Predict the 3D structure of the following.
Amino acid sequence: MNMQPFGAEILDSENRLSHFNTHVRRPLSSLRDHFADQTAFSRMLQAGDPIVYEVYEVHRPATAGELPHGLSIVHPGRVGDEYFMTKGHFHTVRGTAEIYYCLKGHGLLLMQNEAGEWVAEELRPRRLVYVAPGWAHRSINVSETEDLVTLFVYPGHAGHDYSSIERRGFLKSIQRDDGTFRVVDSPKWCAVAEK
Ligand code: PAN
Ligand code: ZN
């Protein structure tokens, strides 16, 4: 691991970093239980398995002093009326925050905490969102045509807890309605901890 200072370019035309350790591509099939409309999901999967989002990440040691960072790119698209989105997660260490900075596109950062509160902050170029400690977060692309590109930075010891969201889902879902996006109650939300 490089322990020297370093710089990197954000390559605008390709939506990627000049240097990174991993490039993860998440196809629709990896988001099976996240979208509300199962019929639309199966239909879309049969027609192919589109990439919903990609992450370029610069890995750093899992210590409190380090700052892993990277680019997240959510492609435009919908499953039924629900916009393409990331899986979403809590940080395993709940007391760790994160910064998202929007470079391109139009989206929302949907957040919720374990007390059942939720917040949706808009992502537009030059807008940043502070994910406070204890808030799960998912990014959603509400554009019909453009990628949603964000830069993220989080503490090295945060860890990723996907299972809480896989079990319970998010309280809200972002759906296209009458040509615009709406935040609606999610049919996937499970009010009790175990299904
Ligand atoms: C981001 C996310 C990234 C992909 O790096 O990991 O946007 O989303 P999922 O991890 O929910 O698939 C982050 O929040 N890191 O902590
Ligand atoms: Zn995170």
Notes: The mean pLDDT is 96. The CA atoms of residues 78 and 84 lie 5 Å apart. The longest strand covers residues 51-58.
